[in-house]
Amino acid sequence: LRNLKPQQLHRESSLSNKFFACLFFLLILFGNFVSEMPRRVKRQFDFSRYCRRHIALMVAYLGWDLDGFCAQNNSQNTVESKIFKALIETKLIQSLETANYSRCGRTDKTVSAFSQVKLVLSLDVRCKQTTGVGVFEPDGYCPNEPEPTSLKTTPKSEELDYAKILNSVLPQEIRVLAWAPVERTFNARYNCTSRQYKYFFPEGALNLKKFLQN
Fold first, then answer.
1. Which of 46, 65, 108, 161 is catalytic?
2. Mean predicted confidence (pLDDT) in 36-44
3. 181, containing H or E segment
């Protein structure tokens, strides 16, 4: 630059300004082009392609920050509400109305439970099995023909890991411990044969021996 004359510096500066002006103009044109491109429409999940399966879920939860187990009209901060939300979010059920849901047991606000058996019936699942315990074809069932390659990579013995799927979206204080396929006639409430309640008291500064004597 030291060796350039003032006229040359002016000319170089002018060329640089024109270059950046052209570049800025091209960026504007590109931005307009991208904004006018048709956006990809999100495909709606097609439940009719999948069988449903009748399953039982075993759930544990820490309830001190929750408003009880049962769903309530005036609160979404319940165990049931969060489970329902997780089931719909993961596309395991299409809606609560079509899930044929039943439960066994309940707790009040701030109470925890370490093994509640929950039943979610007629799950609209992406089922890898078309036969087996609790598997059935829903009304309007219309599966697509599988590709030959998918038959090799997806053994028929596999099934969705419902516990893992639900735990991936549930809050940490609610965990699905296990799931099991059950017959379509199974009902969590009416097929319950016995219930056992155990209460655990942290000792802290309490005199539990005196408490038990009374």
1. 108
2. 66
3. strand 174-181
